[in-house]
């Protein structure tokens, strides 16, 4: 879904930026240019970044799996 219409940025691009190493809203903004024109996408972008950062990585999921055994 398009989040930033001004720059044509999608939610998947935002998630990819986080999975690629961006660890904050500021870093995503710097990398993609999101929220740099009208700003209407700010709330949605922040929500996507926070949700994506809260998803455990594959390694963390494996560690949780083995901790239970």
Automatic annotation (TrEMBL):
<keyword id="KW-0479">Metal-binding</keyword>
<dbReference type="InterPro" id="IPR007419">
    <property type="entry name" value="BFD-like_2Fe2S-bd_dom"/>
</dbReference>
<keyword id="KW-0001">2Fe-2S</keyword>
<keyword id="KW-0249">Electron transport</keyword>
<protein>
    <recommendedName>
        <fullName>Bacterioferritin-associated ferredoxin</fullName>
    </recommendedName>
</protein>
<dbReference type="GO" id="GO:0051537">
    <property type="term" value="F:2 iron, 2 sulfur cluster binding"/>
</dbReference>
<comment type="similarity">
    <text>Belongs to the Bfd family.</text>
</comment>
<feature type="domain" description="BFD-like [2Fe-2S]-binding">
    <location>
        <begin position="2"/>
        <end position="51"/>
    </location>
</feature>
<dbReference type="InterPro" id="IPR041854">
    <property type="entry name" value="BFD-like_2Fe2S-bd_dom_sf"/>
</dbReference>
<dbReference type="InterPro" id="IPR052371">
    <property type="entry name" value="BFD-associated_ferredoxin"/>
</dbReference>
<dbReference type="GO" id="GO:0046872">
    <property type="term" value="F:metal ion binding"/>
</dbReference>
<keyword id="KW-0813">Transport</keyword>
<keyword id="KW-0408">Iron</keyword>
<keyword id="KW-0411">Iron-sulfur</keyword>
<dbReference type="Pfam" id="PF04324">
    <property type="entry name" value="Fer2_BFD"/>
</dbReference>
């Amino acid at each position: 879904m398009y989040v930033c219409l001004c720059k044509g940025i999608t939610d998947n691009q935002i998630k990819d930026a986080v999975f690629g190493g961006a660890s904050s809203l500021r870093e995503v903004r710097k990398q993609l240019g999101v929220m740099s024109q009208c700003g209407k996408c700010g709330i949605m972008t922040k929500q996507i970044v926070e949700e994506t950062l809260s998803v455990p990585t594959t390694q963390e999921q494996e560690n949780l799996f083995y901790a239970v055994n």
